[in-house]
Write a structure and sequence with these properties.
The complex is a heterodimer of chains A (181) and B (108). By secondary structure, chain A is mainly alpha-helical. Chain A folds into two domains: 1-90, Rna Polymerase Sigma Factor, Chain: A; 92-181, Arc Repressor Mutant, subunit A (Orthogonal Bundle), CATH 1.10.10.10. Chain A has helices at residues 5-15, 18-39, 44-61, 71-90, 114-123, 127-138, 143-150, 154-171, 173-180. In chain A, helix 2 packs across helix 3. The longest helix of chain A is centred in the first third of the chain and has 22 residues, at 18-39. By secondary structure, chain B is mainly α. Helices cover 76% and strands 0% of the residues of chain B. Chain B is built from five helices and no strands. In chain B, helix 3 packs antiparallel against helix 5 (84-106) and helix 4 (64-78) crosses helix 5 (84-106). Chain B is elongated. The chains are: A mainly alpha (181), B mainly alpha (108). Chain A binds chain B through residues 15-16, 18, 21-22, 25-26, 29-31, 33-34, 37, 48, 51-52, 55-56, 59, 114-115, 118-119, 122, 133, 137-140, 165, 168-169, 172, 175-176, 179-180, and chain B through 5-7, 9-11, 13-23, 26-31, 33-34, 37, 39-40, 44.
């Protein structure tokens, strides 16, 4: 019988069970790493370093997990904080600025398929838009869960999703036309 | 109304974008980076050891074959000279206890 996340967490907290923590990592590594890859605009090495930092932080703080939210939501919050901390370290002067990427290459030049173009278009969103869309679509969180994970008001999540998706529609206009025909 | 089809294809594409990332040693790297366990290991070993001994004693007392073994061990204790018929049950008991302690000895 497969143990629930709550059972595994209890084993880690009460008995410092590394096997139980390994199982938690195995279960959640894919969505956490995918989310961080999206946040880092596809930088896999950086994303995996942040994912490692995320799980180590989670291990250290697991006794403080109150189960008021799902474990995965709590992990996303740690991952997002790790990402923000890294931004602050990298750019101490404008760490909190929500910047939009300047791509030197227009999205049309490498039109391989929709997913490729979508990944490129996602890189052109602001950090906040990308975070909100990634958590709600790639990670499958509800708006409320995403707000909890990001530490934002619900309205901010919705606004960023709205503006982000409007931009994506604009960047992917040709795909929109193809789908319509 | 005209926005509905647009939202659908984009929503679908965004959800399709969620692909599984295989572990490829990621979990192992996390576990390797965890702080070394220091506490409670000896408690676990003591508990497992006591459970192993209790299991052996219960097995010897409760099951029919156990009486043969205990009788032989008692005879061995009181015997004036060693005989193969007495040594064999002693080896069986030693093997049982040894097997019971294997998990304790190999547990990490």
């Amino acid at each position: 019988m497969e143990l629930s996340d709550a059972d595994l967490i209890a084993r880690v907290v009460l008995d410092d069970d590394h096997h139980a923590f390994a199982e938690l990592v195995r279960r959640h590594q894919s969505p956490v790493r995918a989310t961080l890859r999206s946040l880092t605009r596809g930088d896999e090495v950086r994303a995996d370093e942040l994912a490692q930092e995320t799980f180590l932080r989670a291990y250290r703080s697991l006794k403080n997990f109150r189960a008021e939210s799902q474990f995965s939501t709590w992990l996303y919050r740690i991952a997002y904080n790790a990402f923000q901390d890294e931004l602050r370290r990298a750019k101490p002067h404008d760490a909190l600025e929500d910047h939009e990427a300047e791509l030197t290459q227009p999205a049309e030049t490498e039109r391989v398929d929709l997913q490729h173009d979508l990944a490129e278009a996602m890189k052109r969103l602001t950090d906040n838009e990308r975070a909100a869309i990634t958590l709600c679509y790639t990670s499958g969180l509800t708006h409320e869960e995403a707000a909890a994970a990001l530490g934002w008001p619900l309205g901010t999540v919705k606004t960023n999703i709205l503006t982000g998706k409007e931009k994506l529609r604009r960047y992917l206009e040709s795909w929109q036309d193809r789908r319509a025909t | 109304m005209s926005n509905q089809p647009q939202r659908d294809w984009l929503d679908d594409a965004l959800k399709e974008n969620a692909r599984y990332i295989s572990d490829n040693g990621f979990t192992a790297s996390i576990v390797a980076a965890l702080p070394v366990r220091q506490q409670r290991d000896w408690v676990r070993s003591v508990i497992l050891g006591i459970a192993a001994v209790a299991g052996c004693v219960a097995g010897l007392v409760l099951f029919p074959g156990g009486k043969f073994v205990t009788d032989c061990v008692l005879q061995l204790v009181h015997a004036k000279a060693l005989q193969p018929a007495l040594i064999m049950p002693a080896l069986v008991v030693a093997g049982l206890v040894g097997a019971a302690f294997i998990p304790v000895a190999t547990e990490k």
